[in-house]
Amino acid sequence: MEQLLEWIRAERGRLTALASSLGITPSAILQWDEVPAGRVRRVADLTDIPPSILRPDLYEGMETVQ
């Protein structure tokens, strides 16, 4: 989650854009302790952060094909 928060802080408007793309509110994202399993792939696609970074417990050791 730390990597996602760093990505959000790197550029103004990213939180709002990400939330809009996911169909949720920015505050919903900020309440996450970790990216929900059902949203990992979409968040990875939108942020270019590999799923193995977003959720190592689910994707550790798996290669991401882009």
TrEMBL record:
Q: What are the protein's GO molecular function terms? A: DNA binding
Pfam entry (one): YdaS_toxin
Protein's recorded name: CI repressor
Provide the species name: Nitratireductor arenosus
The organism's taxonomic lineage, starting at the top: Bacteria, Pseudomonadati, Pseudomonadota, Alphaproteobacteria, Hyphomicrobiales
